Amino acid sequence: MKAVEELRYLVLALQREGNRLLAASLRPLGLTPAQAEVVGILATRPPLSLNGIGELLVCESGTSPSRIVDRLVSAGLVRREGTPADRRQVLLSLTDQGRALAERVAEVEDGLHQALENLIGDRPIDGTVELLRELASGFPAGQAIQRRKGGAAN
C-alpha cells in the first residue's frame, strides 16, 4: 500500500469512527450529526439564509441543507422568518428550544474533542493540521471550514 493511499484510508477511518461516536452521543438528544452541525452553526451566527447555511456545512457539503432544516423546523428547533426588504428571502434562526439544545450539542462536541485530545496526548499536531488544511482547501468541505473560521456567510 502506498503511503498516500494509507493516508486516505486513515483519514476515512478516523472520520467514520468520529462520526459514529458523535452520532451515538447525539442520539439521546434526538439529533443526527448533520442536524447538530446546523444547530451549531445557527448558535454561533446571526440569522442565515438556507444558502448561507449550505456554505458553512461540512457534513453535507455540496448539497442543499433544506431537508435537514425542514426537520429542525418541524421539531420546533429552527424558525423561518421573512425579511422586510425581500419576502422571498427567508432567514433561519434557533428557537428558544433550539438554543437550549445547542448548548447540549456543544457539550457533546466538547466531550468528543476532549477524547481526541486525550488520544493525541502531548504529540504535536500543528504540522498535521496544516497539511490537512492545505489538502482540503481545494474542496467544498475544506472551503466551508475556512468560511466558518472566518465568520463569513449570509
Automatic annotation (TrEMBL):
Domain HTH marR-type: from-to ranges: 1-137
Record PROSITE patterns: HTH_MARR_2 (PS50995)
Pfam families: MarR_2
InterPro entries: HTH_MarR-typ, MarR/SlyA-like, WH-like_DNA-bd_sf, WH_DNA-bd_sf
Name of this protein: MarR family transcriptional regulator
Native species: Fodinicola feengrottensis
